[in-house]
Amino acid sequence: MPNDSHLHSQQFAVIKVGGAIITHQLQQLASCLAFLYHVGLYPIVLHGTGPQINNVLEAEGIEPDYIDGIRVTDPRTMAVVRRCFLEQNLKLVDALGQLGVRATPITGGVFKANYLDKEKYQLVGDITSVNKNAVEASINNKSLPILTSLAETDSGQILNVNADVAAGELARVFTPLKIVYLNEKGGIVNGSTGEIVSVINLDEEYNDLLKEPWVKYGTKLKIKEIKELLSDLPRSSSVAIIDVNDLQKELFTDSGAGTLIRRGYRLLVKDNLNDLGTKDALINALNRDSESNFKAEEYINNLKKEEYKAYGDEPLEVLAIVVKPNDSNEISYLDKFLASKDGWQNNVTDNVWNAIKKDVSKLQWSIPSNSDNASWYFGKADGSFTANGKILFWYGISDPLEIKSLIDNFISEPNNTTGGVTGSVFNGQKRNYSTISSNRLQSGLNPRFSNIGKRSFSTTNPNPPLKTGSNKKPTRVALIGARGYTGQTLIDLINKHPYLELNHIVSRELAGQEIQGYNKSKLIYQNLDLDELKKLETHGDVDVWIMALPNGVCKKVVESIESANSPHESLIIDLSADFRFDDHWTYGLPEFTSRLKIQNSKKISNPGCYSTASLLAIDPIKDLIGGQPSIFGVSGYSGAGTKPSIKNDINLLKDNLIPYSLTDHIHEHEISKYLGHDVAFMPHVSSWFQGITHTISIPLNKPIDSRAIRNIYQERYAGEQLITVTGEAPLVRDISNKHGIVLGGFAVNKNQDRVVIVATIDNLLKGAATQVIQNINLALNHGEYEGIPSDLVIRG
Ligand SMILES: *[C@@H]1O[C@H](CO)[C@@H](O)[C@H](O)[C@H]1NC(C)=O
Ligand SMILES: *[C@@H]1O[C@H](CO)[C@@H](O)[C@H](O)[C@H]1NC(C)=O
Ligand SMILES: *[C@@H]1O[C@H](CO)[C@@H](O)[C@H](O)[C@H]1NC(C)=O
Ligand SMILES: *[C@@H]1O[C@H](CO)[C@@H](O)[C@H](O)[C@H]1NC(C)=O
Ligand SMILES: *[C@@H]1O[C@H](CO)[C@@H](O)[C@H](O)[C@H]1NC(C)=O
Ligand SMILES: *[C@@H]1O[C@H](CO)[C@@H](O)[C@H](O)[C@H]1NC(C)=O
Ligand SMILES: *[C@@H]1O[C@H](CO)[C@@H](O)[C@H](O)[C@H]1NC(C)=O
After folding, report:
1. Is the pLDDT of residue 469 over 70?
2. Which of 483, 667, 686, 660 is nearest to 35 (CA)?
3. Helical pair 50-59 and 75-98, crossing angle rounded to 10 deg
4. 141 Cα–ligand 1 center, Å
5. What is the arithmetic mean of pLDDT over 714-730?
6. Catalytic residue among 32, 84, 554, 609
7. For all residues of the chain together, what is the average pLDDT?
8. Fewest CB atoms within 10 A around its CB: which of 170, 560, 721, 759?
9. Which ligand is nearest to the CA of 135?
10. Ligand 3 atom nearest to 307, measured from its CA
11. pLDDT of residue 500
12. 500, 519, 788, best to mutate for ligand 7 pocket (most atoms within 8 Å of CB)
């Protein structure tokens, strides 16, 4: 879970709106802000007014004058600036008012400033302080604060401040969860190529960036300002520069659109510790050692006698030391691995680890077996051995004799130089080796599943599971957009699948990090652009593309892959809602759509979780429907994704049930379209993590009893491994972590004109990831249920 408490203690977002957006995209902006307002979120909005000022000046025959991206503001220009700010502010506040949104115009009193350089720029301010009162009063009064970037001197002179700069100052004092700059171009455009720059890692790229010919004036100012801002905020902070149409997505899910600017990190590898940082910084980093009698200075002195390498990021959030023993037959050991909290949280640890791994082919290390971070080290090791309260780890060693000698050393030498990453030493005695666990030995297991509980086959199912599925060759899968719970669930299923292997995972945010939970090969998240994806397809490197992106961003990726001139046409499966209404795509619900059709498809849209359960619950009695079915659905909060929102705020969900999108939820349209009947769907979210329960009331067009209805379902779903039909109403907690769907209840009222059916499904599994695996299996002619445990509990 993300840290939801921030939503209460912290402002949600600072949004800087470029002036051109108020002229050209006011409606989009207002309706997005209205959405946030109506769900109880109050972003702080600050807007500019540059283009409007230039228009007025031009009409008055004045040439706008800039130095280094800053508008030189003489008194006459100032009058125009002020007028434009007030007009644009009012325009935005009015547009919000028309959507029932309370908004407070705040056109002064927030920023205090001195003259930036009175000679050079005249009436331009350099902000010295921010008064939060007006902004906080507005939010406490449940009204959106709408700010201009005008500032005042102590004596009350109004000064003009660049809106990017002012937005940065706001973000500095309010430290919001999200900092978003909206501009008309939808990001920072690389002047050399005309393309939007997708990520800027400031620590690594800033100096080079400033040398690019197109980084000048306002762009340069903006980048400089954001660099200064981010160096004052936690390392995890970032600024997104995006198009207004991506705003809602960016705030809730990280849209992947536009330009993401973050500090990033720069890794250093040195033969001499002193080259890594100042003495104070080194001692500070070394003092993170938890060993009670550890002395940093002494350690630094002793280290001089050894051959070693020191690894760290520039601010030394993480410091690692690998010592190379004098005897070249001995294996290098990790002597220190010390990280600050920030270093752990921001994965600097992983990045430093990867640097070591690249550099050192065989490594051993040890930690106390009660360490909080043992599981992290397990993930990094090929093998481990536990003795006397310590765990020995190693990687890169596969020769059993070498491993044996490593362990012998570990348990027999009380003062073993394999010092342990917390600074302590081994003092073990002989032990027996049965506790050895070698990750490498365990990989490659292909769990096969029993078919216990599978019912006998009946011919009344019009679309029974296919008996084909002979392909036992490996299928190469690329996962695009791996964030969120569904991405992780998919990685896990692919890891366990006998024939699927991941060969690319694309995630801009996680680029460079190692994939967790996947052990068939070592894989790093990549940041590939459209052309690189196209190349993979052209070269026939991928058999299946899984698109796990937010709604609305997948189209470009699909177009790029389709434009590749490849003899080898791959399968594309999209998890978003983007193609569920596109009849060129096959709707991939195997128990509902013809399996033969899925088997012969190259483009499959994976159904929504609520829709899967609803369609399977209603379709068998489609001919008996006598009015609009109503679906009351409740999902666990994993359905609301990993990014903080009111729908996954556990504090708000505690003892609570939150209704949302009460009409026209996208799944309402999806269900209606595929059922061929309009339905009413009312979604809710509640406090459990995974699983959906639907209570569905269906008016009947002729009297029929409960048993007869249940029989229809039993016959229809005979032979289906992932569907259970039961008399009782199923409970949502029984479906959590299971790969199927349970249908039950079948209560019919006394008049026999209404039936109520209860359906449960795990939204992450059969509602998403399991279904992806089924579809891949069908389309690539693996057995439909390969890699899917038959774990469904059959009740009643
Ligand atoms: C709060 O909102 C109400 C209703 O719009 C308004 O009358 C009142 O002046 C506001 N109070 C403050 C402190 O802004
Ligand atoms: C901009 O494009 C040029 C030319 O392709 C490239 O060399 C440069 O790295 C790009 N800059 C950024 C920040 O992406
Ligand atoms: C390695 O050799 C140096 C001198 O050559 C010695 O001072 C040091 O103690 C040796 N280290 C170990 C671990 O034996
Ligand atoms: C374990 O991780 C925490 C952060 O979760 C970190 O603060 C601590 O230093 C780590 N401990 C060790 C012994 O590496
Ligand atoms: C760090 O990595 C873990 C696992 O790979 C991931 O869950 C987490 O979001 C990452 N954190 C950051 C700040 O990138
Ligand atoms: C090793 O330990 C295991 C379990 O701790 C035990 O079953 C086995 O008999 C031991 N073997 C020897 C040779 O001591
Ligand atoms: C690799 O993943 C499989 C499937 O989850 C698991 O059974 C196996 O234990 C894992 N191996 C290692 C070394 O973690």
Report:
1. yes
2. 660
3. 130
4. 6
5. 89
6. 609
7. 86
8. 560
9. 1
10. 1
11. 96
12. 519
Distances in whole angstroms, Cα of residue 45 to Cα of each of 24, 110, 150, 328, 395: 17, 13, 14, 62, 51
Residue with tokens 């007009």: 87
602: tokens are 């190259």
DSSP string across 746-778: EEE-TTS-EEEEEEEE-TTIIIIIHHHHHHHHH
pLDDT band for 63, please (50, 70, 90 cuts). Answer: confident
32 part of the active site: no
Pocket of ligand 2 (CB under 6 A): 190, 192-193, 197, 209, 212
The model's pTM = 0.45
Query: Per-residue b/e over 737-747, b at no fewer than 16 CB within 10 Å?
Result: ebbbbbbbbbe
780 has a pLDDT exceeding 90: yes
How far apart are alpha carbons 641 and 1 in whole angstroms?
9
| Residue 675: its H or E element | helix 666-675
Which ligand does the CA of 495 lie closest to?
A: 7
- Nearest atom (ligand 1) to Cα of 141: 1
Which ligand 3 atom is nearest residue 305's CA? 7
Instruction: Mention every residue, 6+ apart, whose C-beta is less than 8 A from residue 13.
Output: 41, 43, 44, 176, 177, 178, 179, 180, 251
Which residues face 262 on adjacent strands? 201, 238
Candidate of 326, 332, 333, 335 to mutate for ligand 3, largest count of ligand atoms within 8 Å of Cβ: 326
Q: Supply the pLDDT for residue 460.
A: 65
430 in contact with ligand 6, CB cutoff 6 A: no
Please state, in angstroms and as integers, the Cα–Cα distance from residue 251 to each residue in 30, 217, 597, following that order.
15, 28, 38
The listed range with the strongest mean pLDDT (351-360, 602-611, 715-724) is 602-611
- Contact at 8 Å (CB) between 767 and 697? no
What atom of ligand 5 comes closest to residue 513's alpha carbon? 5
Q: What's the pLDDT score for residue 629?
A: 97
Res. 387 pLDDT band, cuts 50 70 90:
confident
Q: Which ligand is nearest to the CA of 510?
A: 5
Tell me what percent of the residues of the chain surpass a pLDDT of 70.
Answer: 91
